[in-house]
Design a protein that fits this description.
Length: 150
């Protein structure tokens, strides 16, 4: 993956006090291990990944763990949790995202939500959700995140 991209958009006010912010992330250090038989379909795997977020979310090195269900050659779905420590639009702290996505030969689509009660520091009370779409060959991934803080 190439160097992180700069912020793509400033935060904007949304309905019911939500703020929407955008940015990009890159991923590195993908470690994947089979769970059970590695040569059958469907099959399971688990992975750990380090992501780096820029833009509205600033987090230099996240910790992510995923469970992956392969339903065909290069197709399937996954769920996971990711711990981000850094800042959201300048507010410092940490929080956890719960993620759910699907993938195929063209890429990955994912939605995510803040795990209730996981915000700390200036991010205590953080709630929100977002999404991203990754296309194979992209060097970074654009995300959008809509959130509220306490």
């Amino acid at each position: 993956m190439s160097a992180m991209s700069a912020r793509t958009d400033a935060p904007t006010g949304g309905a019911a006090g939500h703020t929407t912010t955008t940015g990009r992330f890159t991923f590195a250090d993908w470690q994947e291990q089979p769970v059970g038989a590695a040569d059958s379909t469907p099959r399971l795997a688990r992975s750990t990944v380090v992501n780096a977020f820029t833009g509205g979310i600033e987090a230099a090195a996240t910790s992510a763990g995923y469970t992956i269900a392969y339903t065909g050659e290069g197709t399937g779905s996954y769920t996971g949790l990711e711990l981000l420590s850094g800042a959201v639009d300048g507010r410092k702290g940490a929080f956890v995202l719960e993620q759910r996505g699907t993938f195929d030969a063209s890429g990955t689509s994912c939605t995510f939500e803040v795990v209730p009660g996981s915000g700390s520091g200036e991010l205590a009370g953080l709630s929100g959700s977002g999404a991203f779409t990754y296309r194979h060959g992209d060097t970074s991934v654009a995300y959008e995140f809509s959130y509220t803080t306490a």
